[in-house]
Structures are given as C-alpha cells and as structure tokens.
Amino acid sequence: MSHRAVSGNAFAHLGLRHSSPLAARVTEQAVEAGMRKMDDPQAEFEIDIMILDYLAHRTVAKAIEIRVAEIQGMVSEDYELEQEEGGTAMLFDTWHRLTSIKHSGKSISTDLEAKLQLVTVALTFLYRNRRSVWNKTPTQLRRLREQHAQRARDVLAAHPELRVTPLVNGDHQHQPATSEVRGAAEETSASTTMTASELELDARHARSLRSLRIPETRQIMDRDRIMPLLDVLPEFMQLCVLAESLLNLNATAWEVAAQFMLQAVLEQYLIFGRPPNDTQDEAFAWNLPAVNWPEIRAKYLDFFRPTSRGTGRGQGQRPALSPAEALPLFPAVEFEAAVIKFLKDLLGALKTPVLRKVEMGRWPELESILEGT
C-alpha cells in the first residue's frame, strides 16, 4: 500500500473552512487540547489517524444521507445541525487540521487520502448551490475560476489533440463570459436596471434549483455565489484518478466523469449564458488513464458537434445539438443522482474505518486488530 505525507486542511485549497466565530473558538480549544502529547508518538499518530479515518467516512455518509432525503422530498433537520459547531463536517475539519499540525510530514495511506478527497468532493458538489458555512466568497470563486481555466490551457497546450474548438489567430474561439458581458453593459449605461438576459438567467437558475428539489430556505439565489460544476470538476477528476489507483474503476465510473463534463458545459449555458464553444474545451481537457477514455469522451462531445450519418442513403451529417435541445436529454437531477451513487459506491469500496466497525458492533474484527498491536 502506498503512503503519502500528511498535508494541510483538506478544504484549505478550496477556501471551505467555516467562518463561524463560535466554531472557530471550538476549533482552537480542540487544537489546544489535542496538541498535548502522548508518551508514545507512534501510538498517538495511529489513534489520531484512526479518528480522522472515521470522521472522513462519517462526513461523506451524512452529506449523502441529507441530500438523498431532499431528493426524495423529505426535509431533514440534520442539514441545519450540520452547519453548527457540533456537525460531523466541522468535527472532521477540526480534527484534520489538528492532525495536520501534530503530524506534519508523516505519511498516510492512499485509502485515507482517497477518503479525504471524497470529503472535499462530497461537500463542494452537494453544497455548491445551497446555503452553507462552506460557501466561498465571490472573490474566492473568481480566483478558483482563473486557476482552473489556466489548468485547462496548460493541458491543451501539452495535448493539442484534446482541443475541441478550432483555433482562430492562435487562440481558441471565445465568447465573453456572463461577467464580461455584464461589465460591458455597465460601462455603456448608467442605469442599474437589470437587462432582460440577466433576468432570464436568474429565472433559469431558479427553475434549476427547483428541478434539483433543493428546499427554498436552502437555495442560493445569487448566481455569483454558487460553485459552478466547472470548478467542482477538477476535484472530482482528482478523486477518480485516486480511486483508479486503488480500485481499477469500471467503465460506468468513467461514464459518470464524462457526464460531469457535459453537465458542466450545460450549466454554464443555462445559468451563466456561456455557449458550449466557450466552455467545452476546458470541461473536456482531461487525458485520463482509463483504457477506453477516448471513446467515452468522444461519445459525450459528439452531442455538441455534427457527426457523420454514414455512407448510404441518408448520408451526411447530423447537426450538433443546441444547448436548449440537450438540456431535456440530460436532466440535472438524474446526473446528481448518478454522482451520489458513485460517491456512495466508492465510499463502500474503500476500507471500513476501525471505529465504524465498532459502531456497527463488529467486535471480533476489533479484537483481532487490538491483538495485533
């Protein structure tokens, strides 16, 4: 089993740390208490990692449980409880920061690394358009957007065969993003009245939230404050690569990855007004280890480009689907259900934490572990 060094907070690079003063105070107290050293450093490390392993598993399971209840029309109070200082995710966040400080430089298993990435994906994906202590500021979102756009440019420069949109004068065809259009409109008009296109995008966003069955009190209505799928995608792909190294993912898992890319393109059109030509290069700029990845990738890209009908009668090309035509074919709620199933199946395929076994009453396994120490 390969091992990697303990690094900083699993959420730090995404800016997902909570901002509640009370929660921050609880964290400081926990860190102060947890920094007290045991006589046996190795035993202390193993105990801390055992707790972290359990909390990571529990955080993902709880986030999935809450979201599934919402999709099924059952509003659980657990969502609100998870936003408080005693919530599972906050306990995990606190403990992960604590272990990162206490055991900096030590190695962890790839299995645990996958669980930590699973936490990041679960919380960013499931809370991306819902009010939460994990929401990022517009400034953080813009910085993340720039970072991920640069990643795609670097990949396309290294692998030009992945490019979808033809180059024009040395650069790919570009349609201005919604924020650019909005900025231009503000420069040419002193009026603060929203344009019709902005109103329509807001209406589309509201309909999208309803179709996802997110309770009204939990919805983020401001489009500038949601985490776009295009910015969740790199974390999801990192999880897939980690899982591939451990479990050899099947074709179905890579299909979900390709669906994620397609949905990221459709969401950019639906909510932000960006056409596929402006986003499909970035969304599909992934050179993955799966043997059949080129075919899976092409299958979903073909929806956005004309394809040959063959050579006999009726030969010619099928026109590319417009985003408006593609949206009904790929309902967002069905896509979210597919991602949730992927996350749940992956959690089940990874090693069951020792403390979870205790929780389930599997004492013989725990005894054998204790006997071996």
Sheet/helix structural class = mainly alpha
Describe the strand arrangement of the main beta sheet, using strand numbers. 1-2
Radius of gyration: 23 Å
Biggest β-sheet, characterized?
A: 2 strands, antiparallel
* Gross morphology: globular
Oligomer: single chain
Alpha-carbon distance between the two ends? 19 Å
Strand percentage, roughly? under 5%
Counting DSSP H or I runs of 4 or more residues, the number of helices is: 16
Mean pLDDT: 79
Low-confidence blocks of residues? 7-27, 172-194, 308-314
Q: In total, how many beta strands?
A: 6
Order of helices and strands: EHHHHEHHEEHHHHHHEEHHHH
**Which percent bin holds the helix content?**
55-70%
What is shown here, in short?
The protein has 373 residues and is mainly α. The chain has helices at 21-34, 41-71, 78-82, 88-102, 110-126, 138-158, 178-188, 196-211, 229-247, 251-272, 276-283, 293-301, 323-326, 332-349, 354-359, 363-371; strands spanning 3-5, 107-109, 167-168, 171-172, 307-310, 316-318. It has a domain at 1-135 and 350-373.
Care to describe what's here?
- The chain has a two-stranded antiparallel ribbon. A two-stranded antiparallel sheet has the order 3-4.
- The chain has 373 residues and is mainly α.
- It has a domain at 1-135 and 350-373.
- The chain contains 16 helices and six strands.
- β5 (307-310) and β6 form a beta hairpin.
- The chain is globular, with a radius of gyration of 23 Å.
- α5 packs antiparallel against α9 (229-247), α9 (229-247) packs antiparallel against α10 and α10 runs parallel beside α12 (293-301).
- The model is unreliable at 7-27, 172-194 and 308-314 (pLDDT under 50).
